[in-house]
TrEMBL record:
Biological process per Gene Ontology, one example term: regulation of DNA-templated transcription
Keywords attached to this entry: Acetylation, Cytoplasm, Metal-binding, Nucleus, Phosphoprotein
Protein name (record): NIF3-like protein 1
Subcellular location: Cytoplasm; Nucleus
Subunit details: Homodimer. Interacts with COPS2. Interacts with THOC7.
Gene Ontology MF terms: metal ion binding
A Pfam family per the record: DUF34_NIF3
Provenance organism: Cottoperca gobio
Gene this chain is encoded by: nif3l1
GO CC terms in record: mitochondrion; nucleus
Positions contributing to a divalent metal cation binding: H140, D178, H383, E387
Amino acid sequence: MLTGCRKRSWTFFSLTYRSVCTRTSQAASLVSSLPQSTHSHSFFTSQQTSAPLHSTLHFPPTRCLSRSAHCPGLMKLQEVLQVLEQLAPLSLAESWDNVGLLVEPSEPRPVKTILLTNDLTDAVMEEAEAMSCDLLISYHPPLFQPIKRLVQKNWKQRLAIRAVEARMAIFSPHTSWDSVKGGVNDWLAGGLGSGQVSVLSQALGGASHSHKLEFTVKSTEELNSVMEELKACDSETTLQHSAGRPDNSWIHVSVTCSDSALTPSVQTLLRHNAPSLSFSILKLEKPPLPGHGQGRLSVLDQSVTVATAIQKMKSHLGLSHLRLALGLGQTLESSVCTVAVCAGSGASVLNGVKADLYITGEMSHHEVLDAVARGTNVILSDHSNSERGFLTVFREKLAVRLPDSVTVVVSKADRDPLEVV
C-alpha cells in the first residue's frame, strides 16, 4: 500500500444499524447492510487467522458468479469487474488512492486470460503481451498521479500506451485489498499463526445521508409546507415525525439529508421563522465495518520467540533474508505474544501501537528508532515483498468464481526492485 493520510477526526451524535439477509442466484450469504448505504459487501475469509470479535462471511466454492458461466467460452470485462467488486469492494480503498479500472479497451472482447501482478513493469508487460492477456490486475496502480499527456518518455505512461494498443484492460485494487477482511493484511498476520485479530485503522461505511435535522412545528399545514421545500433541496429526504406533547399540539420532525443538501435545508428552515419552529443539527456517524480496515493486531494463540518469528515470516513470504531491529532490552529469544502488521509502508498505521513485534515492508530510519526505543522489535521485508505472496491466495479466490474458459495466472516476472547482494 502507498503512504497516505490516515488520521480522521469525527463528531458523532447518533448511530443506527440494521441487518438484512440477501440471497443471490450465485451464493447465499449474510450481508451487513447499513441504513444509508447502497453498497453490497461480499468478502473472502482468511484461513490463517481468527477474529472471534467479528462475524465471518462464508462463501460456497461456486465455480462462477457470472451469467457468462452458462455461455461456453465467454465472459465480458464488466462481469469480471463485478466479481472483483464482490471479493473486495472498491469503497474500502483509502480516499487518496487510485483504484478500479484504469485502462479500458475501446472495443470490448471476451476475457480469457487474466494476469496478476504486484507492480506493472516493462518485464511484466512483456509477459502479458506474450500470453495475449485480456485483463491485467496490478495491485499497485500504475497510473496514480493526474496525467496531462501520454508520451513515451514517461515509463508508466509508456506501459499504459502499450496496454491500449494491445486492447488490454488494467485494473488496480490496492488499498481495497489491504482493508478487506481476509485480504493482504490478514494474510500477512497469518504468517505467525492463528490468533485473535483486530483492525488497527477501522474502515467506515459510506452513507448517502450525513446530517439529521430535528425541528418542531405547530400544525400539519406548517409541516407540509416545510417538507415540500425540503424535498426540493434533496430528493432523497426522508421524513419521520411524531407528536411530542401529551396534548399533541406540537409535531416533532426528524429529517435526514446529504452534505450537499444541508445548507439549502437549513436556509429553508430559517425562512420559516414562526415562533413555533426551532431546530437542531446533528452529524450522523459513519458506522464501522467490523473486520475491515488498514493494519492488523494479532494476539497469537501460541507465542513464539523473535528467532522463530523470523523463520516463520521468511517461509511465509518466500524470502531468504529479512531486516530485523531488536527492541530495547530484547533478544532473539524474547517472546512475541502480540504482533502488529501493515503491508507496504506501514509506519503511519503502526505508529504508537503497543505490540511485541511490528511486521511491514518498509519504515524510515527514524521510525524504526522510535519503535526500538519503545521496546518493539521490527521486521522489514521491503515494500512489495510484504504484499506479493497474497497474489497466489487471491488467484484461487478469483479462479473459483470464473468459468473454466478464463485462465488466471500470477506473474513470474514481477519482483521487488531491491535485493540483497
